[in-house]
Write a structure and sequence with these properties.
Blueprint: H1 2-12, H2 28-53, H3 58-69, H4 78-108, H5 120-139, E1 151-154, E2 157-159, H6 161-187, H7 196-225, H8 232-251, H9 255-259, H10 268-288, H11 292-314, H12 326-339, H13 343-369, H14 379-405, H15 413-433, E3 442-451, E4 454-461, E5 471-477, E6 486-490, E7 492-495, E8 498-500, E9 505-506, E10 512-519, E11 522-529, E12 546-549, E13 551-552, H16 553-557, H17 567-598, H18 604-607
Antiparallel strand pairs: 1-2, 3-4, 3-12, 4-8, 4-9, 5-6, 5-10, 7-8, 10-11, 11-13
Length: 613
């Protein structure tokens, strides 16, 4: 009932003035209401699980029986079918909410309150659904159905490893919601996709697909232990959808680039695309078979493109561009013609080609589809990062498939390769987020009134960018809901350090309008117009002729961040999130390895359910 009461008001309300929106955490009554809702859903799920385990709720048993008789999902064990269906629907629901939420923040800025943002509801219910799917996967199978990879939860209760992993990934993502409020109370609101708690939401949801792949294989092995065989066609389609979902989950990290308001260096975009493509598509081709990389990309385009259509034309919000990944899929399929029987070599070769040839293909696509196309400024570093990270991600994809195939060597080598690949990707990501800003760059602005609160600008820089900048734009955002809440205008060079807008840009109301310069490792911005913000005790910066300094871009894009928080607290809080993320990654690695080791042909049936050490 709660969403039906809140959503209409949230959708119909006109955007409030900036100073009317709280700048910190949510009001305590909203925290209590949201926490109460989450508690009720958790209690309801617990009641269902306990009733099923005790035999007092036969509905789930009857549902699994009907699915088993109908041979749905190609005769996959029904205790795996139900959670996989719940998880896939939940993931798509959360995906829609995430892109809707990002669009609203770009157009409106910070929330008037978490319950006033309609996009938070599909995110919350979607992430809860992922966690609930994991709980169902742990609860549904009987003692003799799980197989040797099962984890002992209680006497007489063994849960599939994939179910445990899915519960962990979903819960990790769901915890991002309350921790986000804690983060806002300490550091202020961070209106950026790459806030630490936001990365928990995205990372947990995206990596839940790895857990789902393990669960699928456990269900398939359990079916074949009974003497039945799963349908090859149905299994192919199901796996292609799962890996397509994995590609979607990995691509959400790029969302700020998709909308055209990234807050980090442009080299991160080709790096993120290469990691998503190499990891997901190598998994698709090696795990599923011929043509699967292309099939996974088609599923990705259908769902991810569909979300853009729903958020954009249907809901009337901002359009998010969609990386294609088609060239990368073709490259993986071509490499597999020679190296499909050598997974590690195939992963490395595919990653290298994705980082080079795939980079060129996506470069061409950004010129057509993205608000911030790739430029010559990022080519050298962009190709280097995409290639190195692509190789590492391809290697991780190959290791995952070896585990899912139960071919993982029982040596130290896979663990070393796993750690090395993760380290390389982490190092590339750290390099991408580290930026500087010039100490003495200034710009002189000449303003021409264009009417309707808009102006045309000429900007004279006292120092020319070194070569072609990655971007030099006038960006106006947070001007209102819908497609009119964002303007990105690429400045046109007039000569002698003079750059001019190509269209009128907004400079009144709630707009935050600034000149943004990204050159090499430097990210800087110069305010054109910033509104008064009483909640932040920030004065208006009016649009006017004159000379202004370029400053650290983050200070303008995220005015809401507190500037009086000690550095050690930033380090401590970030380290906690980092350690939790590392625990999730290591947990997934443990789960894949457990499945591979305990279900090797000739071993699993003899061992029976294995109690964890």
């Amino acid at each position: 009932m709660l969403p039906s009461l809140v959503l209409p008001a949230a959708l119909s309300a006109a955007p409030s003035a900036v100073e009317d929106r709280p700048a910190g955490a949510a009001a305590l009554d909203e925290v209590a209401l949201a926490s109460g809702l989450a508690l009720l859903m958790t209690i309801a799920l617990g009641v269902v699980v306990l009733a099923h385990r005790s035999g007092r709720l036969p509905a789930l048993t009857r549902l699994m029986g009907r699915m088993d008789r109908s041979r749905a999902f190609g005769s996959l064990a029904p205790w795996a079918q139900v959670p996989l269906m719940v998880a896939m629907v939940s993931l798509i629901t959360a995906l829609l909410g995430m892109y809707w939420d990002i669009s609203l923040h770009i157009g409106l800025g910070r929330d008037e309150g978490p319950l006033a943002n309609p996009a938070h509801y599909p995110i919350l219910f979607g992430l809860f659904g992922i966690s609930a799917a994991g709980v169902l996967a742990c609860a549904l199978p009987r003692e003799d159905e799980v197989g040797p990879s099962g984890v002992k939860l209680a006497p007489g209760w063994h849960a599939p490893a994939g179910g445990v992993l899915l519960t962990g990934a979903g819960t990790y993502a769901l915890l991002g919601f309350p921790l986000d409020d804690v983060w806002h109370r300490i550091f202020g609101q961070d209106v950026t996709l790459w806030g630490p708690t936001h990365l928990m939401l995205i990372g947990g949801a995206g990596l839940s697909l790895v857990a789902m792949a393990v669960l699928l294989e456990e269900g398939r092995v359990a079916t074949e232990r009974t003497g039945r065989r799963t349908s090859a066609v149905a299994t192919y389609v199901l796996k292609a959808c799962l890996v397509g979902g994995l590609l979607i989950g990995m691509s959400v990290f790029q969302a700020e680039f998709d909308f055209g308001v990234p807050q980090f260096r442009l080299v991160l975009q080709p790096f993120l695309i290469a990691v998503a493509a190499a990891f997901s598509l190598v998994v698709a081709r090696l795990w599923i078979g011929r043509g699967a990389a292309i099939a996974a990309v088609l599923f990705y385009l259908l769902v991810r493109g569909g979300v853009s259509v729903v958020v954009g034309p249907v809901l009337g919000e901002l359009w998010a561009a969609v990386p294609l990944y088609l060239a990368e899929a073709l490259l993986v399929e071509l490499v597999a013609l020679r190296l499909a029987r050598r997974p590690i070599a195939m992963g490395v070769a595919s990653g290298a080609l994705i980082g080079t040839v795939g980079y060129a293909a996506e470069h061409a696509w950004t010129q057509v589809a993205f608000r911030l196309p790739w430029t010559s400024d990022v080519v050298v570093e962009g190709v280097a990062m995409a290639t190195v990270a692509g190789v590492a991600a391809g290697l991780l994809g190959a290791l995952l498939v070896l585990g899912l195939r139960r071919d993982l060597p029982d040596t130290l080598r896979p663990r070393l390769l796993f750690g090395l690949a993760l380290g390389v990707i982490a190092a590339c990501a750290a390099n991408g987020v580290v930026a500087t800003h010039p100490d003495d760059l200034r710009g002189t602005v000449a303003v021409s009134e264009a009417g309707g609160g808009e102006v045309e600008l000429e900007v004279t820089l006292d120092e020319e960018p070194d070569g072609g900048p990655a971007w030099l734009t006038v960006t106006g955002w947070q001007g209102g809901a819908g497609t009119e809440g964002l303007v990105v205008d690429h400045l046109e060079e007039r000569g002698d350090g003079v750059w001019a807008t190509t269209r009128a840009v907004p400079a009144d109301g709630t707009w935050k309008t600034m000149v943004r310069l990204h050159d090499g490792r430097q990210l800087s911005a110069m305010p054109v117009f910033l509104p008064e913000d009483a909640a932040l005790d920030e004065p208006e910066i009016p649009v006017e002729d004159g000379t202004r300094p370029f400053d650290e871009e983050k200070l303008l894009l995220q005015r809401e961040l507190s500037d009086d928080v000690p550095g050690w607290l930033w380090l401590a809080a970030g380290s906690v999130v980092l350690l939790c993320s590392l625990a999730l990654l290591l947990g997934l690695g443990w789960g894949v390895q457990r499945f591979a080791r305990t279900t090797q042909p000739g071993l699993g049936a003899a061992r029976g359910p294995k109690v964890p050490a």
